Amino acid sequence: MSAGDVILGQDLTGDRDSRHDDGAAGAGSDLLSRRKLLIGLAVGGTVALSELYVPRRSVARINEDVFGKLIPEQLGSWRYATQSGLVLPPEDQLSRTLYEQLLTRVYTDGGADPVMLVMAYSSVQEGRLQVHRPEVCYPAAGFSIIENSAATVPINDRFSIPVRFLAADRGARREYVMYWTRIGDSMPVRWFDQRLMMAKANLQGFIPDGLLARVSVISDDRGEAMATLTRFVQTLVADSGRAGRAMLIGPH
């Protein structure tokens, strides 16, 4: 073999290697392009699915005037007297953003102790009513919770409202409190159940509205206070009309 043959062989081998490299580069480029295309399709599909399953609000916002008219100023023998004197969370910028509507009223009937009513509402419930739970706002106002138990208020033969019954004490003042929450169509009593109902609704594709309703009376007699609050709640539901009942207890 001559030096020329060696050089020629080297040149020919180099050409074959060059062509092989070019082919491999082309194949790699095609593979990369297909991979990018598949990734792009996957990302686009994920975005589309996320848009499809983003929870949507289930009810429209309600303005203050309409919300206030849901609850009559005359409830049986009780009449709306004032809106002052109720225990509420500390007023600050945060608490003002935690609800859309807040109704506070004191009702009197000339006989029993005055009944205080608080309704905190949000058309998009994301746990924001937690600030209005008596276990939170009463201690913030200097009260000690000396009783906290589950109870029910019968509305008719088929339905009773599950409530919490509390006794809050601040020395010279003892207030008995009854409250319930409505999340969409459900009425969870415990905070954990409230979060669970919200999660289930979100998985179904919607964000429920939420209400916390609280009634209370200042009294030294537990039995009398329980009887007064039970009677008031029954009258409240009975006299509030269809829209008011739906706000208070849902489609029950």
Automatic annotation (TrEMBL):
Domain Methanolan biosynthesis EpsI: 38-238
InterPro entries: EpsI_type_V_pred, Methanolan_biosynth_EpsI
Lineage, highest ranks first: Bacteria, Pseudomonadati, Pseudomonadota, Alphaproteobacteria, Sphingomonadales
Protein name as annotated: Methanolan biosynthesis EpsI domain-containing protein
NCBIfam families linked to this entry: EpsI_fam, EpsI_type_V
Pfam families linked to this entry: DUF3485
Organism of origin: Sphingomonas cynarae
